[in-house]
Design a protein that fits this description.
Blueprint: H1 2-16, E1 26-27, E2 31-33, E3 37-44, E4 53-59, E5 66-69, E6 76-89, E7 95-109, E8 115-122, E9 128-131, E10 134-138, E11 142-145, E12 164-168
């Protein structure tokens, strides 16, 4: 009997121990071609405890030349921009004079549901990790998914990691999502 009691106390102690966040805000397809275009989704899988998500604000890295959100029925979208020091040529010869700094969707996502927030991005030519700090605001509280890990390998080991895209050189194999 003492072993059963010890096992029971051990299980209770393990259940009471703090655990790392089980859910994160992540890209549905976590890899893309450097210098290319990316169309994908940020996936929000839970609220803040039992509180519904009411906004998702994504900070766009400075190296991303173009960022466009996908509209969502029932949600509003705000796009914040800054002027570029020097305009650059864009797709089809269009002149790009501003850069998107943040995209914010505002609406309601119940805590027990998930959703995806679409983005179209023109990615930088340099391969490696690209982080998109994201703030998930809820009816009560918020989740700041803004921590940049020391390396992509440490992404799961930091508290509240920023969503990450791994950029691969053109021609490098990019695994397909399952």
């Amino acid at each position: 009997m003492p072993c059963r009691r010890l096992s029971g106390m051990f299980v209770l102690a393990c259940l009471a121990a703090p655990l790392p966040a089980a859910g994160h805000v992540v890209f549905s397809q976590g890899e893309a071609t450097a210098g290319g275009y990316y169309v994908g989704f940020l996936r929000v899988t839970h609220g803040c405890g039992d509180a519904a998500t009411v906004s998702v604000q994504v900070t766009v890295p400075e190296s991303v030349v173009s960022a466009r959100p996908q509209p969502k029925p029932g949600w509003t979208v705000r796009i914040d921009k800054v002027a570029l020091a020097k305009p650059i040529a864009g797709e089809g010869g269009a002149r790009i004079a501003t850069r998107v700094t943040t995209i914010t969707w505002t609406g309601t996502l119940p805590a027990d549901q998930f959703d995806e927030f679409g983005l179209s991005l023109k990615l930088p030519a340099q391969s490696g990790p690209l982080y998109f700090p994201t703030v998930q605001r809820c009816t009560t509280g918020e989740n700041d998914w803004t921590t940049i890990p020391p390396s992509p390998e440490h992404w799961h080991h930091v508290d509240r990691p920023a969503p990450m895209l791994i950029l691969r050189a053109e021609g490098a194999e990019i695994p397909m999502a399952h």
